[in-house]
Every structure is written in C-alpha cells, then in structure tokens.
Amino acid sequence: MIRQAGIQDAAAVAELARLLWPAHTLQELETEFEGFLADSACGVFLAIQDAAPVAFAQVQLRQDYVEGTQSSPVGYLEGIYVRPAYRRQGLARRLVSACEAWAREKGCREFASDCLLDNRDSLGFHLALGFAEAGRIICFTKNL
After folding, report:
1. What is the pTM of this model?
2. How many domains does the chain have?
C-alpha cells in the first residue's frame, strides 16, 4: 500500500530517511520531516508492507530554476529509499507515481530529480522510470 504520510509519521519517515542520508541524526531528520509534513509545498509518501513502513519518497515544489525545465513550479523528487528486502517489487516506481500525481495536483507540468555523477544505480533507476538526463554539473565550494 502506498499512502501520503502525515505529521504522525514523522518518526517512521525519519528512520527510513536516515538509511538514505546517514550523515544526519535521527532527531535532525525527524525535526526536518515534521516541517516538511506540515508544508503544503512538500509531499511525503510511504510504502507499507507487513504492517510497517518499508519505503518512502519525498517530493517538493521548486519555484526556482530547475535544470532542463521550462515551467514553474516543478515537482522535484528530493529523496527515495526502499529497504533492501523490499526492493525489486515495484515499490519505488509506485512511490514515484504517487509523487508525480501529487505534483500534477499542485499544478506542475514537469517533474525532475537528480543524483550524484558516480551513482550509477540511481541513474539507471531514473532512466528506467522515464526521466531524461538534462545535464551534468560539477559543484564547487570555497571557504571565505
């Protein structure tokens, strides 16, 4: 079952998000997702199997320029994670479909995402779901 998460799901979403973004603490992610879940410009979806959350996807409306797009706002897949034991069952595809439907309901005509240049698994995942590569960039930082 795929369903939109509510504020009551912040802890469960944070647990899954920590597996995707391990540099963050569980408390940081729970606080962050409490904000996302209360924001109408953000959607979070859960895949439930065996009565437990096993995957999540986060989508947001981006008003700023999104590489390769022509409209605004753009629905943006911010993150997606499926527990290893539940992969290859179509859950990620169903989560992305839920995110796309959410974005359409919010008036978006385009949907976008990103991945790191060396993340071949994510690249393959995005291409398999019908995304087209819009470009490649290398980001720089400099301490001031």
Report:
1. 0.92
2. 1
Q: Which residue has the tokens 């409209």?
A: 71
Q: What is the CATH number of the domain that holds 71?
A: 3.40.630.30
Amino acid (one-letter) located at 131: F
By C-alpha distance, which of 133, 94, 93 is closest to 112?
A: 133
On whether the CB atoms of residues 14 and 29 are closer than 8 A, the answer is yes
For residues 17 and 10, give the distance between their C-alpha atoms in angstroms, rounded to a whole number.
Answer: 10
User: Does 57 fall in a domain?
Assistant: yes
* Tokens 């753009």 belong to residue: 74
Question: What span, in angstroms and rounded, lies between the C-alpha atoms of 141 and 20?
Answer: 23
Peptide linkage before 73 cis (omega within 30 of 0): yes
Distance CA 119, CA 39 (A): 29
- Which residues in the chain land under pLDDT 50? none
Q: Which pLDDT value is given to residue 137?
A: 85
Domain hosting 37: range is 2-128
